[in-house]
């Protein structure tokens, strides 16, 4: 014997939860939608070890390519090492009209400066020189890069 509730004049019949889901072809325990996470490909890291001259030789073609990218926004270097001087940039043939050099100050850390440069959307790539990035810093850089539609590159120089 099955129970069939009789509709009352005041209220229309109500479908049970699962009947409603089946009627609409919905899954009752589907995955909960989460806020989108920044893409992992917004942040890249590379480590260069060896003599300073050798590291600069490896770095020069990459920076040259980035400085001549089809994207007309800046290539921004945040607090580059002293060895990447204005003279070195000139000698390696980088397009210095498309490079922005920013130095951190007491009021603003290099991480904060990098995040601001990324979020602004004025740079296609922002390069930092952190010896080590913790999980929170990585997330900040990824989120900022995603918001500014930019790339973040951290270069670790070792000996």
From TrEMBL:
<keyword id="KW-0742">SOS response</keyword>
<protein>
    <submittedName>
        <fullName>SOS-induced cell division inhibitor SulA</fullName>
    </submittedName>
</protein>
<keyword id="KW-0227">DNA damage</keyword>
<keyword id="KW-0132">Cell division</keyword>
<keyword id="KW-0131">Cell cycle</keyword>
<dbReference type="Pfam" id="PF03846">
    <property type="entry name" value="SulA"/>
</dbReference>
<dbReference type="InterPro" id="IPR050356">
    <property type="entry name" value="SulA_CellDiv_inhibitor"/>
</dbReference>
<keyword id="KW-0717">Septation</keyword>
<dbReference type="InterPro" id="IPR027417">
    <property type="entry name" value="P-loop_NTPase"/>
</dbReference>
<dbReference type="InterPro" id="IPR004596">
    <property type="entry name" value="Cell_div_suppressor_SulA"/>
</dbReference>
